[in-house]
């Protein structure tokens, strides 16, 4: 059985670590997959969340774990591990020089040190209560790297799939059961907790993704959605609005006519009134009073048509 294969008795977890340098109290708290592979086994100290602490207290030796890169540019699952020592008091909470020092926990006793069978730095306060430790940790042992780093963006993309979309061809090997398991992972539904349970179905799905890959051509940006194409294959669809189609260009003859009309019907605005200017105005002024009277009597005359054209043009430009 491979180190990442599920067993009948094992339970599954996800634990987060920061792969990038971050200095706290003069010490670098980063712990990347390279660091993990180098040290092989490491205590999981520094957990200061009660829910995460309680989950670690449930862990049993031999339980399987996903090692997750957090608080970095590309978060995701980088390796596999297993629990090699069950929960014991986290002594770093009483070390005032440690980045994860908890001043509330400083009043604990030295008998806790003897009970844990650990050797602590001399800077740790000897005042404590061995019957009531506050924080706990487990030891994790590195088992293997993920052949394909499984980014959080991929898991979110899979979790966001609608039933009508179908499974993208690139990760079709997951099947409906695998997709459903990923949708229910705390990693995509809750996110921020540093220690999380992982169901067996999700464990298997992550192993498939890590071993087979194949999603390199998928667009994992949050603004993109996958839809089912006509041939049944998924395709990327942008969530951005499509650009408006350009208006068809007018023919040269139409453009010439429009230009000639606009040259004769330019207007200016005086308060709330528009006054025609230019050639059309001059021609209008030359029309004698008799012609004006005739125009009123004969609406189909050339002058009436000219005025109608002027009014239509003026309305069109408001």
Automatic annotation (TrEMBL):
Q: Where in the cell is it found?
A: Nucleus
Keywords attached to this entry: Nucleus
Q: Which residues form the EVE domain?
A: 11-108, 123-208
The main location is nucleus
Q: Which residues form a coiled coil?
A: none
Gene Ontology cellular-component terms listed: nucleus
Q: What Pfam families does this protein map onto?
A: EVE
| Extent of Basic and acidic residues compositional bias | 220-286, 295-311
Extract the SUPFAM superfamilies matched here: PUA domain-like (SSF88697)
Location of region: Disordered: 220-318
* Entry-linked PANTHER family: THYMOCYTE NUCLEAR PROTEIN 1
Protein name, per record = EVE domain-containing protein
